[in-house]
Each structure stands twice: as structure tokens, then as C-alpha cells.
């Protein structure tokens, strides 16, 4: 095999690619959707929050590149309709980002947790399963290698008290990712991202948008010197969705500014 020489990096790594993003109207999901657009891709965002979704559409103002559809990841018919809409709007589906889920990590002690609360805490895992189930036939039929990115959390690897359901869901997303990578390769690559502390206040619906209230001590907990923001996750998502990561599958990427590597003493 001859040495290929210098390879020019693509200026728009997601050009001509269509990506579905759940929970894509706010927070990390919105950051990922905007990064996809910035990388030349097309995006369909799904979200329960219609205000946030319509605000995204109004801001982006390019229906040929970006659309919104209300999505409840707990409802299989809603998921099926969301995936079908991606095909209807754009004619193909090349990527899926499973980001939607319950934002609140803390619940009551596990001895007081009822079955419905437990299942609510697992919404991100159950929703990712449903989205993969319905998107995979479209992802696998393309001529190019497709990609799934599951947004997990550092809670998959470390915990606070009374966050069992949330931790189980995020740990499950990491495991689901490497299992699917084995099952669906080589046609589809599957990876997960485990974000740490990400300040999302400025990426909310207009009525809830505000500057993050962060102290010097908050930033100082991170070896990089600051708390994270949605673009910190989004840039890695673009890489994992693009052909630049063609030899990467079944992996979890912790993106937390090094916070989980700091020793803490009581």
C-alpha cells in the first residue's frame, strides 16, 4: 500500500448528511444541532418543548436544512413518526443523536422509589432503544457508513446519592452503544459521549434563557479552568458523525474538562 501523502481535511465534514437529533431544541441537543448545520449537514430536531423547537426553526430559518418535529421518546408511535419525517423532509437519514431524556438526576431514596418513577428515570435509555429500532433500517441502507451517537453522562461512571435510575440509564446507554456497534457494524458505527458539567442556560427556549450563574470555584473544579458548554460536546459529536471517525466505534468519550480525574479528599 502506497503512502497517501497529505490529506486535506474536509471544510464541511457533514456535507450532504442528514442527522436526527432527539432533545435537539435546547441544551446539549441544540448545541449539537447547530454544530451539524455549521458542518454542512441537515438536521431534524425532535423535542417535547414546542416553544423551544419553533424558536430554533425561526432562528435557523432554513427549512431545506433544518426542521423541527414534536417528539415524545416514551411513545413508540411518536418515535416512528419522527424517523419517517426525517426521510420525508430530506430523502435519507445518515446519523442519529440520542440526546433526549430526563434532566433531573436526583430522586427519592431507592427504598421509596416507585415503579413509575424508576421508569421515568430510564427514559433516555428506553427512548434511545426506540429511536435506534426505527432509524437503523434507514441508516443501514445507505451506501456510506452511518453513525449513531448516544449522549450518556459521567454519571455512568460516578454518582451522587439517590440518583440510581439516572445512573442506570446513562450506564445503559454506554453499554447499548458498544453492543449495537458489534451488532450493526460495519454499516453503522455507534459511540457514546459522557458529558460532565455542561452549562446549558443560554441554550434554552427564549422564555427560559438566561446567563449561567457560575462561580470561580465552579470553574476551578475543572483542570481546564472552566465549566463546559454545549459546543464542547457538539464538536465531538460532529467528528463521530462524520467520516473522519471511520475507524471509531463502540467507544465512550468522557468530556468533562478533566473533572473526574481530580482527587477529592474529605
* CATH-assigned fold name: Rossmann fold
- State the helicity in percent bands: 25-40%
Total strand count, please? 7
- The number of domains: 1
- What is the first-to-last residue Cα distance? 56 Å
Strand content: 5-15%
Using only CA atoms, what is the Rg? 18 Å
| Low-pLDDT stretches | none
Tell me what the CATH architecture is: 3-Layer(aba) Sandwich
CATH homologous group name = NAD(P)-binding Rossmann-like Domain
Work out the helix count.
8
Residue-averaged pLDDT, rounded? 93
Helix-strand pattern = EHEHEHEHHEHEHHE
Which strand order does the major sheet show?
3-2-1-4-5-6-7
| SSE class | alpha/beta
Write down the overall geometry: globular
Sheet having the most strands: 7 strands, parallel
Instruction: Identify the CATH class.
Output: Alpha Beta
How would you describe the overall organization of this protein?
- 38% of the residues lie in helices and 14% in strands.
- The protein has one domain (18-260): Rossmann fold.
- With 266 residues, the chain is an alpha/beta fold.
- The longest helix has 21 residues, at 164-184.
- The chain has helices at 27-38, 50-60, 76-90, 115-121, 123-140, 164-184, 216-220, 230-241, and strands spanning 18-22, 42-47, 66-70, 95-98, 146-151, 188-195, 252-255.
- It contains 8 helices and 7 strands; from the N terminus they run βαβαβαβααβαβααβ.
